[in-house]
């Protein structure tokens, strides 16, 4: 790869687990979707629950970092007072990279494609898979697998069972019969994930967008709400590096604001 890329031993979940294990046990709340954020004289109120429900759980905060795509924030969170129309439109127009895609992972007891002299990397214009890679871990005796992206548009991915059969048939054709019979098979359609994609993401961009902070803003309400997420980084937006850079920027801005209080 150019520039050189690296993999994390154990996958990205190893990084998540490391951070999680160093946090206070009551600091992380799962299944708590933020539905409303209010600016008050005493700080920020964050409503957790569903917009259509009358009862919500409320949290108070001095600062809030929104580490999610601007488009998803604008489409799923009620801001009070309202954000400006210009900022709202800019957030909705900021494409969420990969939100409309689907990805597969097939696990095998051995890397049979290597034994056949194949790298496991392929690009195809025939069949449902457009891009395939060897996604095996590097540790000895680790699970071996092929992974990649589905090129079928989101609107046509309504029958997962049929799509799985078509994927296995393509793997069989490209890498031999063992590839069509994995021990474990995963298919993830991000376009159907409510916390990843919106209705505007069903047709994904054909080229990597040029990302910038929406309307040139990295924060709102006098830096009380800070915008993070890879789509807010103007250097490596859409990539993991962009997510890390935007998170670092938001945390530094938050700390500076606390030091001035």
- Which overall shape is indicated by the principal axes computed on the Cα atoms? elongated
User: What is the strand tally?
Assistant: 12
Radius of gyration: 21 Å
What quaternary form is this? Answer: single chain
Along the chain, the helix and strand elements come as: HEEEEHEHEHEEEHEEEH
Please give the alpha-carbon distance between the first and last residues: 46 Å
Give the overall average pLDDT.
89
Number of helices: 6
What ranges have pLDDT less than 50 throughout 5 or more consecutive residues?
A: none
What does this entry look like structurally?
By secondary structure, this protein is of the alpha+beta class. The longest helix is centred in the last third of the chain and has 21 residues, at 240-260. The chain has a five-stranded antiparallel sheet with strand order 7-8-9-6-10. The protein is elongated. Helices cover 26% and strands 22% of the residues.
Task: Characterize this entry briefly.
The protein is of the alpha+beta class and 261 residues long. Helices cover 26% and strands 22% of the residues.
Which short descriptors sum up this protein?
single chain, 261 residues, alpha+beta, five-stranded antiparallel sheet, four-stranded mixed sheet, 6 helices, 22% strand, elongated
Write the layout of secondary structure elements.
Elements: H1 12-21, E1 34-40, E2 43-48, E3 57-61, E4 64-66, H2 70-76, E5 78-80, H3 85-93, E6 102-108, H4 112-115, E7 122-123, E8 129-134, E9 144-150, H5 160-175, E10 184-189, E11 219-220, E12 225-227, H6 240-260
Parallel strand pairs: 1-5, 4-12
Antiparallel strand pairs: 1-2, 2-3, 6-9, 6-10, 7-8, 8-9, 11-12
Helix pairs in contact: 2-3
